[in-house]
Queue: 2 jobs
Job 1
Amino acid sequence: MSDRPLVLFVEDEPSIFEPFSAALRREGFEAVLAGTLAEARAALASRAPDFVLLDLGLPDGDGRDLCRELRAASDVPIIVLTARGTELERVLGLELGADDYVVKPFSGAEVIARMRAVMRRARPAPAPAANGPVAIGPLRIDAASRRVWLEQQELQLSRKEFDLLAELVAHAGEVVSREDLMARVWDENWFGSTKTLDVHVRWLRGKLGDDPSAPRFLHTVRGVGFRFTGADEWAH
């Protein structure tokens, strides 16, 4: 079996796949084509890819359904490739779990650069320095094992949800700017939409059971960023 990263390219136009797959091979990747949702699901059942490039307009359905399925099952990096270029479509792709969004026609070099950026961001963020788990009110976070408990119940967080929570908890009681969160949790050279931060904050709030209008944990500081409730605030 090849030790090259495997890219599942879900695309129904061979004129796009063939030249781009050659570029992927030159850059050290292995590429597998799926022209339909059915072929993509069969490929996923056969071998787990290291990366997914996903077209939304497929002959047998909407690629957004596959994006949702993938994200529910794993943290595999996903870049959506589509002719749908409106702001609403971009945000929807991010909300479904895509890591980035590229509008057709696209440059192969740009997509590969974005793939490498996503792969860098996919590496876990450094854990906050701590001697064992950190407790803030009913929340307990263990950076070493990357586990989180809320009132004795363990939360199931994605990689980036945990990284975002760990960064906010490391600065509990302080306002952390949107720019700092993007640089520390995603990548200092991030060039995609910062709306991915808002999406992950919303997901995190949902798992914490936090009401944005009356938050216990995660506060929005408008025009600046976010603040996690400090440990001393739970004493009052």
Job 2
Amino acid sequence: MTDSEPVTHQVRDRVFHLRLHRPPANALGLALVDGLEGALDEFERGDARVLVITSALDGFFAAGADIKLMASFLDSPGTEEFTDYGERLRDPLNRLATLDRPSIAAIEGLALGGGLELALACTLRVGSRAARLGLPEVKLGLIPGAGGTQRLPRLIGRGRALDLMLTAREVPAEEAHAIGLLDRLVEPGSAEKEAMALAHTLCERSGAALTQILRCVDDAHEEALERGLAREAERVTALFGGSEAREGLHAFLGKRRPNYV
């Protein structure tokens, strides 16, 4: 891939680094959406342990859906073109949210609308103090349509999510961190570095265990407590019979670092 493409990636030390580059603001147009799909294909085919998403643009993680593209649909009869665009935008975000490996969004500057929805689809979010986050769709007579109305309340609670979406306000990084919208808060210019360090930490953990933690936490949102507890018990038992638990336990007893292949 070249730097002129809207989505580029490289893999190093089992970290898949995906970078957004669609000036001036990383609007999620079709080229960038298709680039996300292609990068996710590569990630799923490969053996990288963690996916990190960053921006190559100063001041923007991603500014949201492509409003100029959506406006071009207004003169078309019906809503077929808008429906198709929405489906193409949602597909990579839904894939991202259901990956069997962790993902991290590194946010510098603005993450608005679909850009915040992209970050919400990630497992974790690292943001700098210069970040601002929001879902301003109500200003356009619309609602978040790429998972925002569902993922945001699950992350920060109903009342806070309604506050953000109904007012369309931009949330400063400190507040975003305080309410759980950002998992880690760092100094300006440090989000990518912190996200990569976090990714390397996760790469040292058992990949099988990471996957099952993701699934168990999903169950906590989607299943009754009794069912979630039962699945947790099933998964920890299955892990105990696997090679990575054996390596982890032996490494602990031997006072050495485990080697998870």
